[in-house]
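tool=predict chain=A
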Amino acid sequence: MAEIVIAVAGKVSEYLVAPIGRQLGYLFCYRSHAEKLRNQVQTLRTARDDQQITVDEATRKGDEIRPAVREWLNRVDQITEEADALTRDDQNMSCLNGWCPNLISRYQLGREAYKKAQVIVGIQTDRNFPDGISYTVLPRSATFKGYECFQSRDSTLNDIMDALRDDKTKMIGVCGMGGLGKTMLVKQVAQEAKQQNLFTTDIFIDVSWTRDSKKDEEGIAKIQQKTAEMLGFQFKGKDESTRADELKQRLQKKKEPEKDKESEKENQPEKEKEQKKEKILIILDDIWKEINLEKVGIPFKDDQTICKLVLVSRDTNLLSKDMGAQKCFQIQHLQGEEAWHLLNNTAGDSVEGDQLRPIALKVLDECGGLPIAIVTIATALKDETVSVWKNALDELRSCAPTNIRGMEEKVYSCLEWSYNRLKGDEVKSLFLLCGCLSYYGDISMDQMLRYATGLNFFDHIDSLEGAINKLVTLVKTLKASSLLLDGTEDDGDGSGVGASRLLFMDGDHKSVRDA
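tool=predict ok
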């Protein structure tokens, strides 16, 4: 009987006495609860400041902060503000001008301080992020504008798209002489492939460094690095061969564990979906000599590869024989109405006039059906008089071209005429500087500013801001003349002028660069 009484008394104490004692504790120990809360808030602030240092470092590297980390920081800010507001007036706990203690206020403070202290303990415990505080954001695929859709090239574009859909075709070549618009075409291919969800990632790499045989090692490293950046992984090895092995492994299908036939048959749709989950398109543009893809680490003979290659060059034999492209697509000159349509769209409807049209047709004939030459000349002659067009025709016919592999003679006369028509030595000098720098691909505004300053282009300008403004003005002049095109990335300076690429002439006034 005594045992029963003791048990009942214990339960009564557990459910009645303990809660009453806790409530009284809120009242009589409110100061200690408030002080404990202050101490925990200070500890939590220190932890937050320490976490913020790591977050800031990840942000500077360009990483994205994980949602769980951002939420934790927000929770810390919210609870510390609430705790500060709660404990700010803990001394004012009396009424009747201090003659009588305010029991209700003391009780509320003690209870709220205790509860918020428990919340802080939970927040401190939650400062555990097993997946890390940030993740690497994959670079966006380069976007572009300015592609002109020609009916004669629709079939070529469609054939390339069909080849990309063919699982047996791993390497495709796109070839044709300089100025035909091969680069614009393959960029359009990448755009349509993206819209059709044929690939999860498309990587465009300018390999114009292949002109220089001394740049092989550096160029291979650039391909490896650009591919790794777009795929969001980092190399562990330092040397070229180790990185090639790592890249090859990354570009191959993951081996799946063996399953019994019945289970494999049931899961076949999911398995096929998983294999199609990642497909990578790699475009290597402006190839001048063979690139050893095995040294790069790009698997192209292996059925296990998850990537497809599109190679762009002027040399068909280089792509099909030396590099092993399974299918090559030749880009042809523009003919008849398409060439005229491009000239008309660029120069304006004034070319349809009875006096100007015959001259414009002759100028068009001098362009040789090359889109880059047509756009260059038409841009320069837009809204000009018949006399100016006649003078341009005479100059185009009298220009003496230089013999460079892969380019027709008429291209040079168009480009030389456009260069000679630039107004001012400053813009011509900048154009020639770009010609020297363009061997290495896209030219950033920072590069041009450094070199131009070192060569005293701006010796009459006494401020950095003035030099930048002058450079932007000259670059826009060259772009307006179609002698420079926008590169694949923006410098983000707000000027709207990003990396640029020289398309036509090299530093010796004569050599023509690829479109």
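The first helix runs from residue 2 to 28. The radius of gyration is 35 Å.
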